[in-house]
Design goal:
four-stranded mixed sheet; elongated; 162 residues
């Protein structure tokens, strides 16, 4: 049974809804405020099993670090190093790298950020997109200090029926 995730902008919270159908026949309401204008967001993938420490997973120390934390910074630097000078000028390559980094960080990709990635992957100018989508991005994610009109959305631990 599919689980769909929706962002309630007034609550700035992401909720998970269980559906008995692959395509729900109705839209959810916010469990907190009762709002009906929820926005579907891409779901993070779940990983089952026990998490190995970096030493257990790769005793030689040359493999991937676990998601998040200091390992994320290291992977971001490695990704940047893998890009050629031409890639740095190509919005498609930049979007792929930014999406990969966002997914590896475990942070939710908001609807405006997903739209920016998709449009950059289609070759649109990143500066024009930033001008157009900047206010929505700030609203959904907050400013650089993690403050602002919304900050990054929090995630509700519940599972609600759709």
């Amino acid at each position: 049974m599919p689980i769909f995730e929706y962002l309630c902008r007034p609550c700035n919270r992401i909720y998970s809804f269980l559906s008995l159908r692959p395509r729900p026949d109705r839209e959810p309401t916010c469990p907190r405020c009762g709002g009906v204008d929820l926005v579907r967001v891409p779901s993070a993938f779940a990983v089952t099993g026990t998490r190995k420490t970096a030493a257990q997973a790769d005793p030689g120390g040359a493999g991937e670090a676990p998601a998040g934390g200091a390992g994320l910074e290291e992977r971001a630097m490695r990704m940047a190093g893998e890009m050629s000078e031409a890639d740095a000028e190509d919005p498609r390559a930049m979007a792929r790298m930014m999406r990969r980094l966002a997914e590896e960080s475990g942070e939710p990709i908001t609807p405006a950020l997903d739209e920016m990635f998709r449009r950059m992957e289609a070759g649109e100018d990143p500066e024009a997109l930033e001008d157009e989508l900047g206010p929505r991005l700030e609203e959904e994610m907050g400013d650089a200090d993690g403050e602002g009109p919304g900050g990054a959305p929090s995630r509700d631990d519940g599972l609600y029926n759709l």
